[in-house]
Amino acid sequence: VSPTPRRDELLAEIDRLLGPSVSAAALSAHAANDVFEAYVWTVVIDAARSLLNPSDVWLEDVHGQRTSRVLLRTSPGRIYSRTHPYTHAVLDFGAGQELEAHVGIQVVGKSKVLHECDVAVLDRAEGQRCRARDEAPRSSSVLLAVEAKFYTTPLKLSLAREFIGFRADVSQPLPRRRTARLSPSELTDKRIRPRTALARSGYKMLRGP
Amino acid sequence: MDAARLTWVLEQVDETLREGVVEVVDKPGRTVVGKVEELARGSLTRRRSERTRTYTPTERVALLLDAARRAVVETAELEEQLFRTLEDVADTREAEFASEPDDVQATFTVSAVDRPAEAARLSEALSELRGDINA
């Protein structure tokens, strides 16, 4: 790419604009990644909100108190940690159908090994049980696990391979009966079981548009 | 980018340049670039092979411009979407981040701010330059 006067002007302008345009999240790779995880978390929350009434979605801290403070982990930790009043979202699809959406928690895989989920949606009963007993959630109760990677360049091959191993240990097959009967028009039907609807939304999110 | 405290972006670009472009080779004459997710599927590796080559000078410039866009422009867009949802759900436009161990000081707060007009102009300038090198 050879320099020309116009390109020189463009480069000078980009250089001038970079400083005031940089957001707080862009100041470090870690901060950008943390904000990206929070963003993915809100995508999950929005998917639930599209199926629920506004009052059926709220934020809660580790003590079970409703909160408007959003405090998230900078790296995956224990769901029962009381070091800080970390925030998770409660998605109330009705009795026996309540879910929780977390950022950065560890779950136990089928191999009994702890895995880190950047974003996880699990049964609320499991979340409450784990917080009461200081245990990590079982992967069988995890409806959606997201590995969030915010890179400014194309993802490395090794990351994809790591994800395959993670997926093998935490994934649960969805019953064929449920996935087969879900159509786009049914996404607005609140009678659809949340496990199916959210899983499909999450699938779309992971695969992209 | 150094002055804008975006050294980490340059480091990611440097690392990517060192690793080169991963190509998935399908049939003679048909090459798919950057389909990393396809390599992860075992069945495809039986029919395809992968190879790595170095970035061309034009690709290097494009990589840097795209990285700058993701780091600066797209993070601002992510923040905006994030705060839009938080405002609806919890009536807040602020998110705090804290590490779990107390002894690690990794805490920061991100608040919604009006994005300066410079961000929009930066996006335009990057697009203009990106289109220019592809021409």
List keywords for this structure.
heterodimer, A: 209 residues, alpha+beta, 19% strand, B: 135 residues, two-stranded antiparallel sheet, 5 helices, 56% helix, extended
The CA-CA distance between the termini of chain A, in Å, is 33 Å
Strand order, largest beta sheet of chain A: 1-3-4-5-6
Inertia-based shape of chain B: extended
DSSP strand count of chain B:
5
Largest sheet data of chain A: 5 strands, antiparallel
Number of strands of chain A: 6
User: In percent terms, what proportion of residues of chain A is strand?
Assistant: 15-25%
The protein's oligomeric status is heterodimer
Describe the protein's architecture and organization.
The complex is a heterodimer of chains A (209) and B (135). In chain A, helix 2 crosses helix 6 (194-207). Chain A has a five-stranded antiparallel β-sheet. By secondary structure, chain A is an alpha+beta fold. The longest helix of chain A has 21 residues, at 29-49. Chain A is built from six helices and six strands, in the order ααβββββαβααα. Chain A has helices at 5-21, 29-49, 124-133, 157-170, 176-180, 194-207; strands at 57-61, 71-73, 87-92, 98-108, 114-123, 142-146. In chain A, strand 3 and strand 4 (98-108) form a beta hairpin. In chain A, 39% of the residues lie in helices and 19% in strands. Chain B has 135 residues and is an alpha+beta fold. Chain B is extended, with a radius of gyration of 20 Å. The model of chain B has no long low-confidence stretch (mean pLDDT 79). The chains are: A alpha+beta (209), B alpha+beta (135). Chains A and B meet through helix 1, helix 2, strand 1, strand 2 and helix 4 of A and helix 1, helix 2, helix 4, strand 4 and strand 5 of B.
